[in-house]
Specification:
Layout (H helix, E strand, L loop, with lengths): L28 H16 L4 E3 L9 E5 L9 E13 L2 E7 L2 E10 L2 E7 L5 E7 H14 L15 E2 L1
The protein binds zinc ion.
């Protein structure tokens, strides 16, 4: 377990599309160590979510920690996640460990359904509303090289703090 350095803008890596984790990579020491390091890095930086690209690895892997004791799916490891359904709309403030000291109001779906593999290669379906749905969208966007600053709601600008 180790901390990894978080890439911040204007790193070009953040704009790159991540590749799917291949079936024979799942469960490998290399991938499991990466996920463990992502947990350490997320906790150390008190974030809600982290995508592998943010630590410079172009693989479709996300860790999310909603820090919600009432939610049995508060901590998630998502490999090759895919949003399969979304509905509604929410307009809320968002921030990102890769864009320090900034925030902005984005437009996101209120509800999201996501499919992903866990580190054992088992497929799961997760549903989320509100903040968690926003988090799913924000993190899966990272895997396609998209930052929340590209998703600002009409009339909104990036803010300090
Ligand atoms: Zn982010």
């Amino acid at each position: 377990m180790a901390l990894r350095k978080i890439k911040t803008i204007p790193s070009f890596t953040l704009a790159k599309k991540s590749r799917a984790v291949e079936p024979d990579e799942i469960g490998s020491t290399r991938i499991n160590e990466l996920i463990d390091d992502m947990w350490d890095t997320l906790r150390a930086n008190q974030g809600l979510g982290l995508a592998a690209v943010q630590v410079g690895v172009l693989k479709r892997i996300i860790v999310i920690d909603m820090n919600d004791e009432d939610d049995p799916e508060s901590k998630l490891e998502l490999i090759n996640p895919k949003i399969v359904e979304s509905s509604g709309e929410q307009r809320e403030s968002e921030a990102c460990l890769s864009i320090p000291h900034r925030s902005g109001v984005t437009l996101r779906p209120e509800y999201v359904k996501l499919e992903a593999l866990d580190r054992n290669g088992e497929k799961h379906v997760y549903e989320a509303h509100g903040l968690k749905a926003r988090c799913f969208c924000h993190e899966t966007d990272h895997l396609d090289g998209i930052l929340y600053s590209n998703r600002l709601a009409p009339g909104e600008k990036m803010q300090n703090g």
